[in-house]
Amino acid sequence: MDKIYDKLVRDNIPDIIINNGEVPIIRILSNKEYKQELEKKLYEEYQEVLNTTTGDERIEELADMLEIIIALAKLEDKTLDDVVEVAKTKRLKRGGFDKKIYLEKVTK
């Protein structure tokens, strides 16, 4: 019985499937398709982060998100270091989220 996935998978998944005695049917995405699938995957992983209940599970899902962020940065000819550098610059200018500040409204 065929299992339909229709989704972007990590590079070693086809080999893992073969080692399990199954046959993966794959195709290589165009850059446009690849970007779209990475964006879908990022949302999927985001949902999984929200649905995790333990620290270790959450770290696993955050690691998956990080892998996708690395791939998306690469599409922009950037690296994770570039992303981190921009984050540092934004942190210096606007701060981080360490103080848990929740802005309710602004009045005049």
Strand segment tally: 0
Helix content: 55-70%
String of helices and strands: HHHH
Query: Roughly how many Å is the radius of gyration?
Result: 19 Å
**Spans where pLDDT lies below 50 across 5 or more residues:** none
Class computed from helices, strands and strand pairing: mainly alpha
Give the N-to-C terminal Cα separation.
Answer: 65 Å
Q: Roughly what is the average pLDDT, rounded to an integer?
A: 96
Notes on the protein architecture:
By secondary structure, this protein is mainly α. It is built from 4 helices and no strands. The longest helix is centred in the middle third of the chain and has 21 residues, at 31-51. The chain is elongated and about 65 Å long. The relative contact order is 0.08. The mean pLDDT is 96.
Keywords:
mainly alpha, 108 residues
Ordered list of secondary-structure elements with their pairings:
Elements: H1 13-19, H2 31-51, H3 55-75, H4 80-94
Summed up, what is this model?
This protein has 108 residues and is mainly alpha-helical.
